[in-house]
Amino acid sequence: MTVERSSGHAASTRLTSFMRRLIAHPCVLEALLTGGHRRRSTQPYVKDLDLIVVLRRDYPREQAVRLIQQIVCFGALGRSLDDRHRYRSTRVTGYSLQYEARDDAVDPQERFYLSPPPVDVMPAYREGTHLMIPDRDSDQWIPANPDYADLKPLVTAWSRRHDLGLTPLAAQTMALRYLPRGRTDGVDVALAAFFRNAAENALSTEDPLVRVCLRETADVAERAVVTDRLGDRWDAERLWHDVLGERFGPNWMSGVPVAIPIRPSKTDEMLTAASKWRARKSLGRASIRSAFG
Question: How far is Cα 205 from Cα 136, in angstroms, rounded to an integer?
Answer without folding.
Answer: 11
